[in-house]
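Ticket #4471: complex job returned nothing on first submit. Input attached below:
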Amino acid sequence: MNVVNNKWIGQRTIRPDGVDKVTGRAAFAADTTMPGMIWGKVLRSPHPHARIKSINTARAEALPGVKAVVTSRDIVDFRVEKGAVMLGIQDMRWMCRNVMARDKALFPGHPVAAVAATTEAIAAEACKLIEVDYEVLPWAIEIDDALKPDAPILHEFNKFDGKPSNIMGRIESKKGDIAQGFKAADVVIERSFTTRPVHQGYIEPHACLISVAADGKTTIWSSSQGQFMVRAMTSMLTGIPQSDIRAIPAEIGGGFGGKTIVYLEPLATLLAKKSGRPVKMVMTREEVMRATGPTSGSKSTVKIGAKKDGTIVAAHGSFYLQAGAFPGSPIRGAVGCSFAPYDIPHVLSEGFDVCSNRSKVAAYRAPGAPIGAYAVECVLDELAEALKIDPLALRLKNAAKEGTKAAHGPVFPRIGYIETLEAAKNHPHYAAPLGKHQGRGVASGFWFNAGGESSAQVNITEDGNVVVTTGHPDIGGSRAGIANICAELLGIDYKRISVIIGDTQTVGFSNLTGGSRVLFASSMVVTQAADKVIATLRERAAKIWEIDPEAVKWENGAAHPVSPNAGQFEPLTLADLAEKAPSQGGPIGASVQLNTQGAEGGFGTHICDVEVDVDLGIVRVIRYTAVQDVGRAVHPSYVEGQLQGGVAQGIGWALNEEYIYNKDGKVDNPGFLDYRMPVCSDLPMLDCALVEVPNPKHPQGVKGVGEVPLVPVMAAVANAVNNALGKRFYSLPMSPPKVSAALDAPTQQAAE
Amino acid sequence: MAKLHVTTSVNGEPVEFLCEPYETMLDALRGQLGLTGSKEGCASGDCGACSITLDGRLVCSCLMLAAEAEGHEIRTIEGMAKGGELHPLQQKFLEHAALQCGICTSGMLVASEALLAKNSNPTEEEVRFWLAGNLCRCTGYDKIVRAVMETAAEMREMRP
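Support reply: We reran it on our side without changes. The output follows.
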C-alpha cells in the first residue's frame, strides 16, 4: 500500500466521461457512420434444430442494391475433430459455428447467411430471397428433455459415459470424503431447484461499423467488453492478421458479460471486404433476445449435513446448466463458488454442461455462481430453521476465513466474509419490525474475481497535465476510479487527468472487461506507470538542481528537496517540468504491461424484505441491504452502483425474468414488454454497506466488486418469501402465476 | 413512394428533412438530423432510451412517425444544456453517479425534465412511476431517483 494521504481515493468525483453521457455526445456502437456506408442484415434459422442441406444466394445477389452476401463458406472453419482452439474461455470451433451455422442450425435465430445492401430495407428484402433447404430435426430445449435416453443429440461426435449425449462435460471440486462426512451429521437437508434462462438485458443492442481497405487494413468500430477480443476473434474467423485490424472501442451500453464474445463483427468484416464498402450492422431487440446470451437455465440438487450445534460437516451439490447450442455453460462458477463462503471439511461439488437447442450462453455477472448460491443458500436457510439457529449465526459459525482451504483449491488469505456477516447482523435493517405478509431473508455469495493481462500508458502533456490510456472498455465507471488513483499518486487535481480507452493499435494488449478485473488490474498497471513517471520527474528536478535524484521527493504535484540538507530550491511543479522537458531529456511518460496477479475473491451478504400481495401473488421487495467486502472503495458511488445494479438484476431473476418457449421451440417473449426486467416502480431504494478489508496484494487494496452483488440475491429473495408465507419455492422465477398457484393450493386442499 | 418533406423545430431551431412515410422520428433524429443522443434500445416503446418531447409532451420517438413532426416542436437531449451550462438535472446525475454505462441516460434525463415541468415537488413514488417507462439495467434506479428528487428540491429553492 503506497498510498497514504488519500486525498482523492475514496472521493465521489465526477467521472471523466460523464458530461458526454448526460448531453448525448457519447458515441455508442450504433452512433457512428462512415462515408459510403451500407447496411448488413442477418438471415436466421427459423428452426430449433435442422440440417442445412443447401443455401442458394443467387436471387439475393441479383437484387439491385445488394453488394455482398456471406455464408459459412466465407468463415474460417475450425474443424471439430482437430481439437480445441481456445481464445480465453471460448473454443473457436464453437465460435465459428455460432456466428454462422455450418452443417446444422442449432437454435431459432442461428445465423445462416448475411447480406449487405445500400439500405436496410433492401438488405432485409434480400435475406428473404435466400433459399435454404433445411432438413428439420427433432429438438430439445429443457435440460430434462436434453438428458432423456432418446433425446435428439446436437453434437453427434460427443459421448458421455460411452454413449452419444448432450452432456458435453463434467467438472468437480472435491475436499475430504462426503460419505464419511454425512455420517457425522445430526441433520441432513437435501433439496432440488430449477432456474430459468435469463438475459443480461443490456439496453444497447449489439452493433458495429466496419471498413476493410483494398490492402486488407480493417477498422472495427463496435461496443464490446474487449476490443482485443474483438480483434482476435475477427482475425481468427476471417483470416485477416491482427496487425491489420484496428478495433476501436465505442462506448458500451451495458454488457454484464454478454458482450465478451462476437456475433456481428466477423460477418460485417467479410461483407465489408467483399463489397469494398463500410458495413454497419445493428441488431434488433428481438435478435438480441433470440440469438445472444442469455445465461443458463439450471437444475440443481444440494445436500448439506450439520451437527446439532450448527457445525456443517458435509455438503454435496450437483449442478446441471444449459449451455445452449454449443458447450461452455458456466459450471465452473456454480461448482466453485457455491460452497466457498463456508469452511466445510467434506465437500463434493459437481457440474454438468448440457447442450440444447437454445442460443449459446454468454457470460452473465459471476457466471454460474448465482445459480449455485440460490440452491446452497436456500438449503442453509432450511438448515437454520431445522436447527432453530439464526441464519446469520449459522453462517458465522461456518464462515470461511484466512487459512480456510476452499473446495475449489485456494487457501484463503485475509478475507472479509465474517465482517460482512457481522455488519449485516448489526445493521438496523436486520432488527427492523415486519408487517403482515412481509418476510425477511438473508443469503451470502462469493465470486472468484480475476487478474490477467492489462496495459496502460501515463503521458504528461506539454502543458503539464496528464493523459492515462488503458485497454479496458469502461462499463461501470472504471475511468472515474483510475482518475482518482492517478490524482492520488501524482498529487494533482483529478480534473487535470484525462482517462481514455485506447484502441487495439494504440495501447498494449489488455484482456476482457470481465471477471470483476478492470479496476483491480488497470489500477495496478497505472500505478506502476505513474511510479515510473514520478521517478522521471524526480530525476529531471535533480538534474536541474544538480543534486542526487534520491534527494528529491514528489509531493503535492511537485518535486521538492527531501530535506533542507539536500539544498534550498523552489518546488518544481508538473507544469514546470513539462515546460522544461524538451531541454531535459524529452517527453515524459511511461507504459506498463503486466499479467496481473493477486485478485482475491469477494464476499457479500444480503438482507431482503418482501411483501406479498396474497390476492394477486405479486412479491414486492420493500427493503434491501447489500453488504460486501469491497477491498477499497476507490470511488464509493460507483462501488455502490455495482452493488445496486447487481441486486436489481437478481431481483428480476428471482421474481419475473425468464425465457418462455412456445411449442415450436421459439422464444415467445423476445422483447422488453414480455421479458419483464425490473422497472423503476418495482424497486425500493437499495442500501449498501461497504466493508473495506484491503486486498494485501494490490497497491490500493482493490478487490473486484462488480459480480459478487448478483450472487446472493435470488436466495435472499426466496428466503424472504418463505419467511413471509411459510412456503418455499424451489423454482425461479417466483412470478405472480406461480405464487398465486402456491397460495391457492392449501385452500383447495382444505376445501376438499 | 416519394419521400415526405417535413418542416419542424428541433431544440428551438427550424429544421427541414426528407423521410420515408414509414420512418420513425427516432430514425430521422439519428439519421438525417445526426442527433444520436436519443438511443434505440427496443423500437417498441418499452425502454424509453429514445425519449423526446413533442410540444412539451414526453413521447418515445421510436413510436412516432417522422412525418408527424410537421409543424410541431421537438426537444431532445441535445437541447437540454444551455450552451456550455448543464441543466441542473444533468449536473445532479453526474454528482450522484446516476449513470453507469450511459445508454439510458439521455432518455432518463428527458423524462425527468418532463416530470419536473409538470410536478415541481414529486414524491419518491411519483418519480418511480413516472420513470417506469425508462429501463436502466446498470444502476437499480436508486441513484437516479435520488438525483431527480434532489434536483427538484434545488430548483424549488432557486425559484423566487
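The mean pLDDT of chain B is 97. Closing as resolved unless it happens again.
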